[in-house]
Design brief:
Blueprint lengths: L4 H12 L2 E4 H9 L3 H8 L1 H16 L6 E4 L10 H8 L3 E4 L2 H9 L14 H19 L4 E4 L8 H15 L2
Parallel strand pairs: 1-2, 3-4
Helix pairs in contact: 1-8, 2-4, 3-4, 6-7
């Protein structure tokens, strides 16, 4: 939910010379609809089921050194977090809800069915309990990276990618 998974993932993959897969893009390529379109037509439950199998199919490909950016709800459905742990190292980009709300306001909310049409205050009211409910799943990640707690800046994602790069090359 606007944590920077895709942006940071792309930057990190480029810096490492690894492959990058955005789960939402892979889903759209496989199913012919974006996740938002699929959810509107088939519902969230069917989407989560299909999304799970997209990751499992991608994991079977003979490609090494891949960074996957999943949707924010992916780790919280069934045993998906366990599946991520089996695929490799998992990372949680932890933001405070008020900063996620600000970041979301800078995006096209029409691509996020459950968020479209909300004000920043409404986003914050929605995000806060979502993060609380998801925390037990997210906190199973191998690494938790706390995002900056200052004004939202373009440099934030670059700085997070650099922090992750250093973490990977030094371990």
């Amino acid at each position: 939910m606007a944590a920077g998974k895709t942006t940071v993932g792309r930057l990190l993959a480029e810096r490492l010379g690894w492959h990058f897969v955005d789960l939402d893009e892979a889903f759209a390529e496989i199913h012919g609809q974006t996740p938002a379109e699929y959810i509107r037509e088939h519902g969230i439950e069917d989407f989560r089921y299909k999304e799970k199998y997209v990751v499992e199919d991608l994991a079977e490909l003979p490609v090494e050194k891949v960074i996957y950016a999943t949707g924010g709800g992916y780790p919280c459905w069934e045993d998906n977090m366990d599946c991520l742990q089996e695929l490799g190292t998992s990372i949680y980009l932890r933001w405070k809800p008020e900063y996620l709300a600000k970041r979301l306001m800078l995006t096209d909310l029409s691509t996020r069915p459950v968020l479209q049409g909300r004000t920043e205050q409404e986003l914050l009211a929605f995000i806060t309990p979502q993060l609380e409910a998801r925390a037990p799943f997210y906190e199973k990640a191998d690494y938790i990276i706390d995002a900056p707690v200052k004004d939202i800046a373009e440099e934030d994602d670059k700085n997070i990618a650099e922090e992750l790069y250093q973490l990977i090359v030094n371990n």
